[in-house]
Amino acid sequence: MNRLPLAISLLALSVSAAHWVFSTRAQAPAAVTKPPNVDFERHVEPQLDLGKCEGEHAVDDLDDLMKHRFNPILTKISFELYHGQKEVPERLEEVTKHAENLLGCIAQVPRLKQDLDPERTEDFYKLLSAMQGNVLGLHTASSEFNEEASRHWFGHLRQDCSACHIRFNPHQAEAP
After folding, report:
1. Which residues of 135-155 are buried (b: 16+ CB within 10 A; e: fewer)?
2. How far is residue 19 from each of residues 10, 14, 16, 36, 158, measured CA to CA in Å?
3. Mean per-residue pLDDT over the chain, rounded
4. Is-contact 147 88, C-beta < 8 A?
5. Residue 37: left if φ>0, alpha if ψ -120 to 50, beta else—which one?
């Protein structure tokens, strides 16, 4: 059987494919330059202020941070999600503010953490990272005025708190 026509067809197909790939290759974009007289910093506001961790009492250690920041913030979030009397957009705006504040508090934890057994440090930071991810989910959902998703992410956040307390503060996890 003569395979020459098949070989010629495959060669033509290969050449066509190569021509198409090289002719349609994206051109590198021109260098992006800042337009004259535009102050980008003045027009771009940061999305999250991770430096903020507001509360009424001073915080000297991780226990203070939990008692005077985390607990009140989580209580306020829970109230807005499940018991608030305002309209949904107003309540979720409050949740967004509280979630942002909580992100700032999470950023304080490494500075305030108590000495941990080196074998437990990795677990501690995994739980802290999961908590941060779930607070970011809560922040995103509430800023999009999605009440169902906000409750979903808050549920994950509560689970993070329980897991951390069981692992690192068992006497407090057993409290009623």
Report:
1. bbbbbebbbebebeebbebbe
2. 14, 8, 5, 41, 57
3. 78
4. yes
5. left
pTM of the model: 0.68
Higher pLDDT, 59 or 12: 59
Dist. CA 83–CA 87, nearest whole Å: 11
Q: Residue 57: which pLDDT band, with cuts at 50, 70 and 90?
A: confident
- Alpha carbon of 145 to those of 11, 77, 88, 95: distances in Å? 57, 14, 7, 10
Cα–chain center distance at 3: 60
Place of tokens 């069981």: 166
Q: What span, in angstroms and rounded, lies between the C-alpha atoms of 3 and 137?
A: 60
Domain range list for the chain: 62-173
Query: Is the separation of the CB atoms in 59 and 68 below 8 Å?
Result: yes
Q: What average pLDDT score do residues 96-115 get? A: 89
Place of tokens 């020459």: 4
CB 103 within 8 A of CB 135: yes
**Does the structural domain 62-173 have CATH classification 1.20.120.10?**
yes
Report whether pLDDT(45) > 50.
Answer: no
